[in-house]
Automatic annotation (TrEMBL):
GO terms for molecular function: acyl-CoA oxidase activity; FAD binding; fatty acid binding. PANTHER family: ELECTRON TRANSPORT OXIDOREDUCTASE, PEROXISOMAL ACYL-COENZYME A OXIDASE 1. InterPro entries: ACOX_C_alpha1, Acyl-CoA_ox_N, Acyl-CoA_Oxase/DH_mid-dom_sf, Acyl-CoA_oxidase, Acyl-CoA_oxidase_C, AcylCo_DH-like_C, AcylCoA_DH/ox_N_sf, AcylCoA_DH/oxidase_NM_dom_sf. FAD binds at residues 143, 182. This is Acyl-coenzyme A oxidase. It comes from the Eukaryota. It is found in: Peroxisome. It comes from Dimorphilus gyrociliatus. The keyword Phosphoprotein applies. Residues 478-659 form the Acyl-CoA oxidase C-terminal domain. Residues 20-137 form the Acyl-coenzyme A oxidase N-terminal domain. Keywords: FAD, Fatty acid metabolism, Flavoprotein, Lipid metabolism, Oxidoreductase, Peroxisome, Phosphoprotein. Signal peptide: none annotated.
Length: 664
């Protein structure tokens, strides 16, 4: 019957043990935040103008065109509705463009943040009103054909001409072409261009410049600028990632973003308090993508796979007793529940990262830059750690849907390919782990000197106990301590290896490369510890805020499952030096099995609590009503191949061939 929920899924919802609304509030942060999210989500979802046709059956060019149309409609609506708060805007947008890029993604997420973070107050008053009202539309053009990671190796030059008080922007080589910037290929008319600043023959390193790249009249490239799209990619079809070449393009001196460093009219260079303040936009995006890319994408895939697993029946457990829901197989639970727990863990650590980002950023605005290294180390580690685990988890969710997981009807491929570049953009993950490790090694040396370390690295000040106190009745406190101990030892081990190589006469830069394996392991362990600790802190906060015991109960199980799964996956680390005994490892294993069993009745409730609307999931398998089989054929019939019974290529190729063959 249309409109009713699949009885297998309904049965799951009828037995949920916790108060779902309170859990949703915990996920959003507060009840007020839940209310706000629902308000702006519903504004988008209930608007008939955004009756979204799925991109599934469109060509790349059609996808791009559809995104442009939808983007412009959305902007008009935003103006009409008067939405101005960045969070409200983000919620509204992400329900119109679920797991998709808008044509102005880079404008909103990097161009405007760079103006806010890198432009002087005078420059902000000139450019921001234009950018906020879309009189100008920009992107962030840093990466080049030859260099993405090594920003100091960028080749684009900005040479100051004192006579005219202009910068000359130039691409001196083929490898200096800007390559990859989002929305550059077709959509934007301005760019923040990162280029080597050269004044009076001296190179001061990469700095940001604002450059008009297309005419505001007819959208043609500006003189001296060559532009285009970089072609099809693994995903991101609707995003016109582009290339750009400059041939001695002149821009006024005032177009260098001068909040942190300046070039005076006579060519005097005033340097920033810390040259890395120029990299601030990247730190911002790394901090926000923990939630918006890693956590939410994994949570969506877990929602699809868990709902589908409660609808899908296959094989037998007890011979002759009928086919169970695949969710009842313990092996299926062992694949999916850790992904669910990871999604929760990442959502909670993202809330903490966001708070730290905004607090350190307001200090920076007041000229206090002491906490910049920690912010960089932490955001680098968490960006890499969460995106790494999220994409692995999404693939596990896809496989858990069997064959149908491979079809776009599952919705998972779209979510996956949208999140996947998160491991590469905004700092390739290995490179980000190594940046975090660089900070951690410094912290070890500071701790050795007796300095008190800040926030997330304070754990390096106190040597952990040599043995874990985990018992049969595993608790969060002991689990956090185990992760702290692992991080402590791996960071010290990497630092020790580094010192040893240097003491043995190796140059420090070679020693760094030689010890990279240990350094990456150390940064991963640090990220893992921060996530487990954030889960424990969240449980404490919720308990103090009198959140219902049923919610604390189920979240505690999830938190333990997350931590236990991580230990089982990395047991070598935890068992080295006998920190964890064989017997304790069996407690971990038993605790893991117990958590799987205990979470089973609440699995659907735990994914429903995320409240992803069907339009966002765009999944036949993960539909809220569970009516999977009733909708798959209808979905497949939308494919162009099903528009005719006999395809034209039959008449062109197969029929003549068969006719010919039958004559032989
Ligand atoms: C509530 C508000 C809601 C708002 C909603 C917004 C919604 C946003 C959603 C976002 C989701 C998706 C958006 C997707 C769009 C993004 C598309 C992708 C865009 C891009 O990819 S842009 C290009 C990004 N490129 C990179 O990230 C390059 C990576 N490379 C680097 O960062 C650096 O080059 C490096 C690897 C760090 C090395 O730099 P360098 O060689 O210059 O430095 P050294 O290694 O020598 O280190 C020197 C020193 O500096 C420290 N340091 C390095 N970086 C930083 C930093 N960023 N901050 C502070 N300090 C830094 C380093 O640690 C060294 O310190 P030391 O000398 O050891 O003390
Ligand atoms: C979808 C997408 C969107 C993007 N959008 C933008 C954008 O809007 N604007 C923009 O400017 N850029 C953008 N980029 C570019 C992106 O930021 C870079 O691709 C990214 O920073 C990685 O740099 P790279 O491509 O040079 O990788 P490389 O550095 O060439 O990486 C290749 C390999 O070398 C390794 N490696 C490199 N350096 C080191 C090192 N020091 N130590 C150890 N290993 C190392 C890496 O780990 C990796 O395995 C985008 C990229 C993608 C995929």
């Amino acid at each position: 019957m249309a409109g009713t929920v699949n009885p297998d899924l309904q049965a799951e919802r009828d037995r949920i043990s916790f108060e779902q609304e309170a859990l949703t509030n915990a996920i959003d942060g507060t009840p007020e935040k839940t209310e706000k999210r629902r308000k702006y989500a519903n504004l988008a979802l209930n608007d008939p103008d955004f009756d979204m046709t799925s991109y599934n059956f469109l060509s790349r060019s059609e996808k791009y065109g559809a995104a442009v149309e939808k983007t412009v409609k959305m902007i008009k609506k935003i103006g009409k509705l008067g939405i101005t708060d960045p969070t409200d805007l983000y919620i509204y947008r992400s329900h119109i463009f679920p797991n998709e890029s808008t044509s102005f993604t880079l404008h909103a997420d990097m161009f405007i943040p760079t103006l806010m973070g890198q432009a002087s107050p005078k420059q902000q008053s000139k450019w921001l009103p234009k950018a906020l009202t879309l009189q100008i539309i920009g992107t962030y053009a840093q990466t080049e054909l030859g260099h993405g990671t090594f920003i100091r190796g960028l080749e684009t030059t900005a040479t100051y001409d004192e006579k005219t008080e202009e910068f000359v922007i130039h691409s001196p080589t083929r490898t200096s072409l800007k390559w990859w910037p989002g929305n550059l290929g077709k959509s934007t008319n301005h760019a923040i261009v990162m280029a080597q600043l050269i004044v009076k023959g001296q190179n001061y390193g990469p700095h940001p410049f604002i450059v008009q790249i297309r005419s505001l009249e007819n959208h043609m490239p500006q003189p001296g600028v060559t532009l285009g799209d970089i072609g099809p990619k693994f995903g991101y079809d609707a995003n016109d990632n582009g290339f750009m070449q400059f041939d001695h393009v002149r821009i006024p001196r005032e177009n260098m973003l001068m909040k942190h460093s300046r070039v005076e009219p006579d060519g005097t260079y005033i340097k920033a308090k810390n040259s890395k303040l120029t990299y601030g936009t990247m730190v911002f995006v790394r901090s926000v993508l923990i939630r918006d890319v890693a956590a939410l994408s994994l949570a969506q895939c877990a929602t699809i796979a868990i709902r589908y697993s409660c609808v899908r029946r296959q094989s037998e457990i007890k011979p002759g007793a009928g086919e169970p829901k695949v969710m009842d197989y313990r092996a299926q639970q062992a694949k999916l529940f850790p992904q669910l727990a990871t999604a929760y863990a990442f959502l909670f650590v993202a809330q903490e990262m966001e708070n730290i980002y905004f607090s350190v950023n307001s200090e920076i605005d007041r000229g206090e830059i002491d906490r910049l290294p920690e912010l960089h180390g932490l955001s680098s580690a968490l960006k890499a750690f969460t995106t790494d685990w999220a994409v692995v988890g999404m693939e596990i969710c896809r496989r858990s849907c069997g064959g149908h997981g491979f079809s776009h009807c599952s919705g998972i491929p779209k979510i996956y390919v949208n999140a996947l570049p998160g491991v590469t953009y905004e700092g390739e993950n290995t490179v980000m782990y190594l940046q975090a490790a660089r900070y951690l090694v410094k912290c070890v040396n500071m701790a050795k000197r007796g300095d008190q370390l800040p926030g997330s690295v304070a754990f390096l000040n106190k040597k952990p106990a040599p043995k874990s106190s985990i018992t049969e009745d595993v608790n969060m406190v002991d689990l956090v301590e185990a992760y702290r101990a692992r991080a402590y030892y791996l960071v010290h081990m990497a630092s020790f290896e580094l010192d040893r190589e240097i003491k043995n006469g190796m140059a420090s830069y070679d020693a760094w490369n030689e010890c990279a394996v240990a350094l990456v392991m150390a940064a991963k362990a640090y990220g893992h510890y921060v996530v487990v600790e954030a889960f424990a802190k969240k449980l404490e906060t919720l308990t103090n805020n009198q959140v219902p015991a049923s919610v604390i109960g189920v979240l505690t199980l999830l938190g333990k499952l997350y931590a236990l799964h991580g230990i089982l996956e990395n047991s070598g680390d935890f068992m080295s030096e006998n920190y964890l005994s064989k017997q304790q490892k069996s407690f971990i294993y038993n605790g893991f099995l117990y958590a799987l069993k205990s979470l089973r009745p609440d699995a659907v409730g735990l994914v429903d609590a995320f409240e992803f609307p069907d339009k966002v999931l765009d999944s036949v398998l993960g539909r809220y009503d569970g009516r999977v089989y009733e909708n798959m054929l209808e979905w497949a019939m939308k494919d162009e191949l099903n528009k005719t019974q006999v395809h034209e290529s039959y008449f062109k190729h197969i029929r003549p061939f068969v006719k010919q063959a039958s004559k032989l």
